[in-house]
Every structure is written in structure tokens, then in C-alpha cells.
Amino acid sequence: MRKTVIAGNWKMNMTPSAARAFVEELKPLVAGKNGCDIVLCVPYVDIATAAEAAKGSCLHIGAENVHYEASGAYTGEVSSSMLLEAGAEYVIVGHSERRQYFGETDHTVNLRAKAALSAGMKVILCLGELLEARQAGITEEIVSMQTKLDLAGIAEEDLSRLIIAYEPVWAIGTGLTATPEQADEACGIIRRVVASLYSEKAASELTIQYGGSMNEKNAAELLAKENVDGGLIGGASLVPAKFATIVAAAD
Ligand code: PGA
Fold it and tell me: Which atom of ligand 1 is nearest to the CA of 96?
């Protein structure tokens, strides 16, 4: 049985005081929901506050990115050890907004994933095709290639701390959601690639999330699919009641 994981990605939203208020409001709404793991990936400056507010609850805190070096002359960057000490257990790497606006490539995404895993973090690795790729009928090729490049050099034993989030770029923040069938198909493609790279066991145990305009209305249908083991949620993770409804759908 693989774990269902519902993760929020706040992106560049919420100050530390807003983060504290959010966590306090969310806690009672998700108390006792043991059917899935619940993660909030928050801006760097919110991590310590969110982690403190989440103490003793079922909420886990994550970051939205990490640098691949342990320390050094990388102005503006943050390392895994900094994130861990601040209270982040998880970290997102490879989000399409990082790839699109900040020049990240499969190579740097792979470096970030490896650095975070070797520091002991849990990684949510995002990948997914652009609209042009879907329209050209090459979703399978793109998603397979990204899976292979992004996982290069990651050991099978580390996959227990890795989640892949399938996030078709055309569905992120657009209100356009992949149909449950499209999400299931793409997550299934990723799972088959993981089986070919590692083993059937690794593939069957890997949590693969769907992300892209998942919300309190469409979550249940998406999560009901065989290959969809959770969600990475942007917009709908900014409202406690909406996020809690998605958690309830997964639970
Ligand atoms: P969205 O974002 O739910 O607002 O589409 C998802 C994501 O970017 O992870």
C-alpha cells in the first residue's frame, strides 16, 4: 500500500503571521485525518513559524525549493541543513514555475533532489508537460524523459522519501484541470518508467501526486484514480476550509 499525501504549495503568499493564523485555523479541521499525510510547503521565511504552530498536530511543514550545495557563495540561496533546522521536513523541487521563470532544468532539479535526499529531507519532485507537448501528442515522451533525467543517480532506497508530483503545466493556476483519466494515465506512465528504472516494487510503493487546479470540488474524483496518490495544491491550499475538504476527500 502506498501513502496518500496531500500537500499545499503556498507559492509567494502569506507572511509569517498569516502562516501562524492559517495553521491554527487548519489544525482542528484536519485533526484525526490519518488516512493521508498532510504537508504545507511554505515560503522560506514562514517555515519556523509554521513548524512551531504545527507542533503536536498531524501537519508536516515543507519548503518550496532548496539549493544543491551544502553552503558557500550562493547569494540568496538556502541549503537543506538550513531548511531542516528551521523545521522543514519536506521540500518541493522542480516546480514548473521554477523551471519557467528561474531557468531551472532537469539537471539542476536532479541536483536539488539528490542534495535534499542525502541531507535526510523528503522530496516532492514536480514534472509535467507544456500545453504544446500535449497538443503535439508527445506527453508520454516528455513525462518519461523528465522522470529519467530527474531521477538520475537517485538510489532505490531513497525513493521511500521521494514523491513525484505530475503537474501538467497547462493546468497550473489556470483553472483548467486534467481529467481524472488524463491524470491517471500520466501518473501511470511515470510509474511504469520508475518500474523500468528500479523495480516493480519501487514503482508500486511510490506516491505519485497530481497537481494543477486541484480543488475542493474536483479532488475526490481525481484521488479516486488508481495511479493518483495525492495532490499538490496551489490556490486551494490558501484557504483552510478548502484545503481541509481536499484532505477529507483523501482520507
Ligand atoms: P494550482 O497550483 O493548484 O494553483 O493550480 C498547483 C501547483 O502549482 O502546485
Answer: 8
Q: What is the pLDDT of residues 141-170, one digit of tens each?
A: 999 999 999 999 999 999 999 999 999 999
In ligand 1, which atom is closest to the CA atom of 237? 3
Pocket of ligand 1 (CB under 6 A): 9, 167, 172-173, 211-214, 232-236
Question: Is residue 60 flagged as an active site residue?
Answer: no
Q: Domain-by-domain residue ranges, the chain?
A: 5-250
**Confidence (pTM):** 0.98
Distance 73 CA to ligand 1 centre (A): 31
Contact 219, 152 (CB under 8 A): no
* Ramachandran category for residue 10: left, alpha or beta (phi over 0 → left; psi -120 to 50 → alpha): alpha
Burial label, 143 (beta-carbon count in 10 A; 0-12, 13-18, 19+): buried
| Residue 180, pLDDT above cutoff 90 | yes
Type of residue numbered 244: A
Q: Which CATH architecture has domain 5-250?
A: Alpha-Beta Barrel (3.20)
